[in-house]
Amino acid sequence: MLLVLCPFLAACGYGASADPQAGTLRVGFGIGPTARASGVTVLTEFLYAEPLIVHDWSGRPQRKLAQSWQWNTGGTVLTLRLKPGVRFHDGSLLTADTVVQFVRQHAARERPGFRYVTDVTAPDAQSVAIHLSRPDFFVLPELSELRLIHPDSNDLGTGPFRLITRTPVVEAERFDGYHEGRAALPGVRIVTYDTQRSAWAALMRGEVDAVQEVNRDSVEFMEASTKIATYTSVQPFYIPLLFNVRHEALRHVEVRRAIAQALDRTAIIERAMRGRGRLAESPVWPFHWAHPADPPRHSYDVAGAAAALDAAGFRLPGAGRPGEQRRRFAIRCMVYNEDPQFERIALMVQRQLFEVGVALEIELVDLRTFSERAARGDFDALLIRVQAGRAMDYTYRFWRSAEAGRPAMQNSGYRGADAILDELRHSVDDDDTRRSVSKLLQRFHDDVPAALIAWTEVTRAVDARYDVGTDGNQDPLFNIWKWRPVRASRR
Fold it and tell me: At CB < 8 A and 24+ separation, what contacts does 244-249 make?
């Protein structure tokens, strides 16, 4: 790889970018499949709009546009106190009436975290009260996902940068009246490319100053460079092998448990994911404040898995024709086809399950087909990246089975965690939450609705002349307003 890349970089004129002190930060996005274009939208929103609260690395809510909040004794009224003096980019003040209007609009759209909201009021000019029919742990996470915009314009927010254009590239300039202080960068431009590799090549040519993701095959090269800094962080996304419990064999918990035992997840992470992942023991963010320090785990044990399958009545058939594969049963596994990483993982899972006599038949499908079939339950197993978030609301949305008026995100037939998920949703204090999370992790371990493989990692690459101020955990891409150019001779 290095022999190919080095002359390519020289031919591309690596070293042509201007002094970062002088201008706008340029971020390259390889959007690839259409689905990834949403990443540009997310980063754009981080630049110009903000939520009332944010959740930190441990899933704890922190202040943003709301400087404080308090629940009433019964957990049915949440009162938020707005930070004073916050202004939209047109100079108008953020008021309680504006927030009330905004939250009411989104509550009317039946957002998942607002299911029990009955009213939103403004007790005074700086306070907002959200009234619920019953306690709901997920109201704060829902508020953290809503980035407030001006009632008269979708392009006016309160963030550190003022949005100038969305097409053909996103342009944002520094907002000098930002309530948390003036950004060091005069502006940000987001440039899209057809692939991650194209964005990476643009960084090498000095056409952009940062890229949203480094291709896994290029990370080692980047890490060896003194001119580019890389930042790798665990993301709140995990990869499961999800089981449809209606399957003749998978309806037996002993079989699902045996499959989890048969997977060498460490090898999958090292080879199929190029070492860019962390073992997943549960669908709950592993750094969450309520996550137990020593969760129940499934150990890799091929012999034990084979014995368990025998005991469950799924024995290997006798020898057949020469060259014929002996198998206990087959599983159709639906795999997202627009990222080669998932096919690599599926192929390794296929080989590992072959060792215990289970045939995994891989079906590569596009995202639309994947989503439609997952919702219908038209699969035996599926493999894709699932969002967990840091506040457990996404865990609830994905794993809670369908309810009246609310379809499920996936239709695996599994309902064994519903009661615990509901208990978690309606918890009213930290002790309730910890108990519910501990019970949920134990239930996932015992019932095995999925063989959880890994939490994903992402690597950002930034021109080394920028200080991103990362603490080693946070993703620097979503804290751009704190970046600072540093003078150094690089090129």
Answer: 244/377, 244/379, 244/380, 244/381, 244/412, 244/413, 245/412, 245/413, 245/414, 245/449, 246/377, 246/413, 247/331, 247/380, 247/381, 248/329, 249/314, 249/328, 249/329, 249/331
Closest by CA to 425, choosing from 402, 448, 391, is: 391
End position of a domain, from candidates 140, 155, 170? 155
Listed residue (475, 351, 420, 450) closest to 46, CA to CA:
475
Strand partners for 30: 193
DSSP structural state of residue 228: E
CB-facing half-sphere around the CA of 313: CA atoms within 13 A = 6
The half-sphere exposure of 381 on its side-chain side, counting CA atoms within 13 A, is 30
Contacts of 384 (CB under 8 A, 6+ apart): 239, 335, 336, 342, 370
Evaluated on CA atoms 169, 174, 180, 184, the torsion sign reads positive
As given in the structure block, the two tokens for residue 458 are: 């992402």
What pTM, to 2 d.p., does this model score? 0.88
Are residues 309 and 342 both part of a single domain?
yes
For residues 277 and 269, the answer to whether their CB atoms sit within 8 Å is yes
Closest CA to 422 of 223, 221, 46, 134: 134
* Per-residue confidence band for 237, with pLDDT thresholds at 50, 70 and 90: very high
Helices (H), 406-463: 418-425, 430-447
Same domain, 223 and 260: no
The pLDDT assigned to 7 comes to 32
Q: Is the previous residue joined to 112 through a cis bond, with omega within 30 degrees of 0?
A: no
What is the C-alpha separation between 169 and 191, in angstroms, rounded?
5
Looking at the DSSP assignment, which residues form a beta bridge with residue 148?
A: 50
The C-alpha atoms of residue 276 and residue 269 are separated, in whole angstroms, by: 7
Alpha carbon of residue 168 to chain centroid: 26
> What's the CA gap between 114 and 426, in Å, rounded?
13
pLDDT tens digit sequence for 37-63? 578 888 999 999 999 999 999 999 999
Q: What is the secondary structure of 447-482 as a DSSP string?
A: H-SEEEEEEEEEEEEEETTEE----SSS-GGGGGGG
pLDDT in tens, 299-310: 999 999 999 999
Domain that holds residue 4: 1-48+159-227+464-491
Cα angle 363, 365, 369 (rounded to 5 degrees) comes to 125
Domains contained in the chain, number: 3
